[in-house]
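FAQ
Q: What does a multi-component entry look like?
A: The components come first, one per line:
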Amino acid sequence: MKKNYFLLLAVITLFTVSAKAQTPVATLYHNGEITVFHGYNAFSNAANAAVDDDIINLSPGVFGGATISHKLKIYGAGMYNLEDEKNATVISSGGGNNASLSLVFTNGANGTYLEGLYIDKSIQGSKTGGHPDQLTFNKCLTKSFYYNSGNQEAANTLNFINCILMENPSTIKRNCFNCYCNDYASMQPYGVANNSYINCVLRGRSNNSISLSMYDVYANCIFISATGIPNSQGYVNASNNIYVGTNNIFATAVNGENWLIPNISDVFKTFDGNYTLGCDFELTDAAKQYLGTDGTQIGIYGGTVPFTPVVGNPRITKCIVDRQTSPEGMLNVDIEVKEGL
Amino acid sequence: MRRFISLSVTIAIAILSQASITHGYYWFDQESTVRQSTIVSGKMQIDAGTLRDGFHTLFYMVSDDQGRFSAPAHSYFAVFSSIGISQSFTCKYIIDNGQAINAPGTFSSNRLNLNIDASQLPTGFHSIDVLICGNNGFTSKGPRGYFIKYPDSDGSIKSIIRWVNSSEEILPKINLENPTFLIQDVWQMPDVAFSTDRFDLNVEGNATAISRNELEIILTDKVGRSAFAFATYNDMRQIQAVEAAGDITGGGEFSHPAPEDGQITWWTFRGAQGDSISLRASRSSTLQLFAPDGTEMMKATKTDATTAWSTSINKKGTYYVAQHSTTGTNDLKLIFFHKHLLYGDVDGSAMVDVDDVNAMINLILNYDQYKDQYPGSADLDGNGLVDVDDVNALINIILAQ
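Then the predicted structure of the entire assembly, as tokens:
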């Protein structure tokens, strides 16, 4: 019996390794019918076959980039999974056949919704035919956004919810809910107006100033790591924000109540200003006493959509498939699914 | 937030002089008619009930009991109607700077609750402005709010798609009449032919190779979102007996007719902890090494004729070498190197005896001179050092022989 147990353990170990080696899979959901695509280019192939209002689902794994030309809903397994770092959906290079791009959106992609993706390369809105508008990223990690001088007049809007933005999309109007925005100063010098940041943590590029564009709305946010003098370009609506440092970024051209706290350790329990994948932004007990405009704590865990990387797709919480068939080829399966968030 | 001030529509102005003041006179704004007021307890009563909401100017003067008049004076005041929660009102809301839309609203515990139909809104980020309009024409506007519309959600599973070995075999799609969160079923799997690319070795009893398949599953909910599952299983209808072509313990070159497609040439050898082995094929083929418990230790796919694949083993028992997937029909050769590490054989004589004790002591006494040369067989306790503990262990081995 002991030997059998060891054998079973060895086999389970073997198959656990195998499970992680599965090839990436994309499905295209169109009017209730599902088409399956396999392999590195599965996402691109599904996107090319899609029409407006279709749904693309991506398994955990690494996919090549894609060009999105229709209004789609695109769901991945998550931008990261702290329990299993490989159980994420990564969009690598090849969007628009460009090695430096993960995703290219044409204006036909207006209204596209993306969720649960780790977007490893740049994102570009194609200028041809007009820039795409109202793209929504939920629970995604974005590395960068592609600019060139001809794209500065971009008027499209990007919406981010529960996202990690390693670089700000400076030339694009953006609305951010409960996001961590790294390298915030990079919005200069092409900053566009009327951006909204609600319950965000905004980390400025060290030794650079933070630029607040005209008519921006900042509510319940935390600003960190910007040592320069803020360059307010006009009226800014800033309420119930904490600025970590000594420069009063909200001294002029703002309204509402804001606070200065000199040390970051007085604001976050563990976050030291340097982002690592999955790091925690929990506030100190003292910082939790500063409430946002809605009466909840400020920062990414407050407000109406507290930050979580858990996606809305159905999640498999148990998957037991027999190790072998019966002599007749019958296989027992026992799968439990939990509704996503 | 703007504060609404409720003022009485009756204004009382205190008269500071003595009781000889008997009459008061006043008018508002641009009025041409002077109104008369009585003085009660030194205060002039003024009726402003007919005034509209807003900013006004009050002019007033008084007279005494001898008919003497004061000079006219004036002051400013504002009239606001009271807006209480019991007063009727209407609500409007504006989404994304669009048109104002009427919405029914109710007050409960000093909170205004609005029911807003967002079904026609696109998914994503939206702004909302709420207006409260009193029946007296007074309108208040709260701070702008923001909200997110998510796609429709329902995590229960409606359909199941399955396939075997990366779509090599696609099973019928399962549509569930009653979407569920729990899938407990018995599936008839396709009878996929045995492939040398996918098999497991079962060493219990007479060793067998059993076909291994990969099962991929997509579970899709009612709105088209999916979860992915992956599992492997052995198909008990596809089993091959493992009949060794020969025992290759000790190494050498071993020829055998080339295995046909789907067939495997098996070799076995007896190994022990510390043995070093190396495998090479005479021409392109696949080599696999399995441990005594059936675990695959190494796989070299379509190796060439010059590359040797080496490893060490750490468990005593019978090991299996599988050779297959070759080209050509001539005999296929396995070139096998097998070096058995005899623990305690410090002098390399292939025997463990008192000479090894002398060699070990010499090694310890001149460690710096020989430390890079001594064989692993001298480190009997495996702690990375050769010391007196190893001498004791060696003596115990000799005494036990």
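Q: Is there any commentary attached?
A: Sometimes. For this entry: Chain A has a mean pLDDT of 80.
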